Amino acid sequence: MYTVHLQASISYDILIGPGLIGNAGKYIRTVFKPCRACVITDSNVYPLYAQTVCRSLEENGFQYDTYVFPAGEQSKNLATLSNILEFMANQQLTRSDIVVALGGGVTGDMAGFAAAVYARGIPFVQIPTTLLAAVDSSVGGKTAVDLKAGKNLAGAFHQPSLVLTDTDIIADLPAHLLSEGAAEVIKYGVLQDTELFQWMCEKDWKQKLPEIILRSVEMKKRTVMQDEFDTGMRKFLNLGHTFGHAIEKLSDFSVPHGFGVAMGMAIAAGAAGKK
Ligand code: GLY
Known about the structure:
about 280 residues
């Protein structure tokens, strides 16, 4: 297992390795005393991994509640956020309790934002289940929902207290979800890591998934530690995202984020290369 330590307004570990999800409660217990955990997940991930996480939470002394929302970017809005917050209030969550975001980027962003604003902020744990979330959105504390006017327009910086990335789950992902995440990894390669870029040019890049996740997370960590609140060099991580977000929105989110970023990077590179 790899451990990456990120020191920002909150310092936390990002654990990357096989079989972590079955021991989620044990790792969470190293950071939090037994309390109530609100597990937020979507309709795709719930049947796959929620039971494993909840069982492990229970075995380690946590009480849990589960909130499931319909999978997809269309759910990442103020209406779902409001339902999550009402659910948390009905479960009488307090600031001594935690949120567990179990899923991809939409889940992590929205559950993180709910944690940021509920009771003026409670801690949360990220358990990313996509490559994109593992290498990008689960790390660095950007949380948000979309507004009609655009993506991620309402949000907060709220760092997780722990990130658990189970590489078995990532290795099991269908090809389209791996490709989506690959776009963000290629972004890191283009920005700063020639060797990582070369790995991604190889046909069997998936064989190196744990190392690829580690290298990406290391780079994200360095960037966040230098510019947590995105006023300077963190903006480089938005390479391809301006075009990408426009493509996603104009496609009514039928083009997923990773593919939008891939197209956005190609457009940006084309524009940069024009004389
Ligand atoms: N996804 C870009 C960032 O976290 O800054």
